[in-house]
Amino acid sequence: MSRNAAVSNPSADPDIREGMGLFERYLSVWVALAIVLGLIVGQLLPVVPETLARFEYAQVSIPVAVLIWAMIFPMMVQIDFSAILGVRRQPKGLVITTTVNWLIKPFTMFAIAWFFLLVLFAPLIPEGLAREYLAGAILLGAAPCTAMVFVWSYLTRGDAAYTLVQVSLNDVIMLFAFAPIVMLLLGLSDIIVPWDTVALSVFLYIVIPLAAGYGTRVYLMRRRGIEWFDKVFMKRLAPVTPIGLVLTLVLLFAFQGEVILNNPLHIVLIAIPLIIQTVLIFFIAYGWAKAWRVPHNVAAPGAMIGASNFFELAVAAAIVLFGLQSGAALATVVGVLVEVPLMLALVRYANRTRHQFPDVAAQPAAITPGTG
Predict the structure, then answer these.
(1) CATH number at residue 171
(2) Residue 30 covered by a domain
(3) Mean pLDDT within 325-333
(4) Which domain holds residue 304?
(5) Which of 17, 42, 133, 184 could serve as 254's disulfide partner, Cβ 3.0–4.6 Å?
(6) Confidence of residue 247 (pLDDT cuts 50, 70, 90)
(7) How many domains does the chain fold into?
(8) Residue 211: partners with Cβ closer than 8 Å, 6 or more residues away
(9) DSSP H or E stretch at residue 224
């Protein structure tokens, strides 16, 4: 799922698929296969989800927690927080990405999902289930992308060093802002979740992986060097995230089987507000950057961060807060299903409109982040 942040900026436009690994390229296919396999397991081998459901502690599924850590850790280990200290040029890009991600995106997601799921689609979705879907959308809206954005940055010839700064800063903000925003919007949705449950999800799936990832990064770089870390360790770690994601989705859909088979239309209904939200946020950030004359290699990745989601965290939080069989968990997975095709379309648009932005050569020199 993740791509090492130290991608190069080719002089020519990269092919829209060239910069993506096998898993990223066919992510929607893997998700669809995980759905099918999960439904088969749930219907033909119900003993599997029933057995796994017994391994819980404090309402947290231990097998699922392990798989989620496997998804998230490889992304966290890439984050170079020392890069934030190198922010001296192009402050406009950081103002745009942080404002859009934390002061606009969560609230537009809430408004759009609320309108579609609880008003427009009210005759098609029972109210209780619609509120669960809304909760899943809220969790997606409160978690900006931290991993796939490096792929989007590469495909739009983004400044890799600046993208790393943007992602690192968003991760620091997420550490403190995710829980309060989620609690606020869930409260506005009349969805009651105990504060300690939200705090537990933040601790389990942000604090622990972030601390473990940063500690691992610093230790290995000091012991083995940056080149070994980038070219050996990260390559060995790369398959862990896709394996963890696919297995998590198989388990989730094994638990979700009855809901999906009884309500296949709901997948489409959930996808509609998520697609509208993604396109809206991209154009807010991208248009703002264009108006501020931010260079394209900063503007495009910044818009991609807000448009896409840290869906691994959203899935994890939905499972902890509402359970594997909840509508919230299903909604976060629909976000995974629609994200890659939609983001590839936005990448194409960004590449076609590069000429509308100021020439990079006329801008201040790019940031050189620390090596951690």
Answers:
(1) 1.20.1530.20
(2) no
(3) 85
(4) 54-235+264-362
(5) 42
(6) confident
(7) 1
(8) none
(9) helix 208-224
How many angstroms separate the CA atoms of 6 and 45, rounded? 43
Domain assignment present for residue 68? The answer is yes
The predicted model gives 344-365 an average pLDDT of: 77
Q: Which of 338, 209, 320, 324 is nearest to 270 (CA)?
A: 338
Q: Are 169 and 90 in contact (CB under 8 A)?
A: no
Determine which of 13-22, 51-60, 225-234 has the lowest per-residue pLDDT on average.
13-22
Residues 6+ apart with CB under 8 A from 298: 90, 93, 158, 159, 162, 289
Whether 47 shows a pLDDT value over 80: the answer reads no
How much of the chain, in percent, has pLDDT values that exceed 90? Answer: 25
pLDDT tens column, 101-123: 999 999 999 999 999 999 999 99
242 in a structural domain:
no
Concatenated DSSP letters of 191-211 = ----HHHHHHHHIIIIIHHHH
Query: Is residue 365's pLDDT more than 60?
Result: no
| Burial tier of 3 (Cβ tally within 10 Å: 0-12, 13-18, 19+) | buried
CB 260, CB 330: distance < 8 Å = yes
Cα 3 off chain centre by: 13
Classify 287 as helix, strand or coil: helix
| Residues 250, 40: Cα–Cα separation, whole Å | 9
Q: Which long-range contacts (CB under 8 A, 24 or more apart) does 207-214 make?
A: 207/175, 208/69, 209/69, 209/72, 209/73, 209/76, 210/76, 210/79, 210/171, 210/175, 212/73, 212/76, 212/77, 213/73, 213/75, 213/76, 213/77, 213/78, 213/79, 214/76, 214/77, 214/79, 214/81, 214/372
225 to 4, 218, 220, 228: CA distances (angstroms): 15, 10, 7, 6
Closest CA to 106 of 146, 144, 141: 141
Write out the two tokens for 250.
């198989």
Classify residue 186: in a domain, yes or no: yes
Q: What gap in Å lies between CA 319 and CA 300, rounded to an integer?
A: 32
Q: What gap in Å lies between CA 153 and CA 20, rounded to an integer?
A: 11
Residue type, position 289, single letter: A
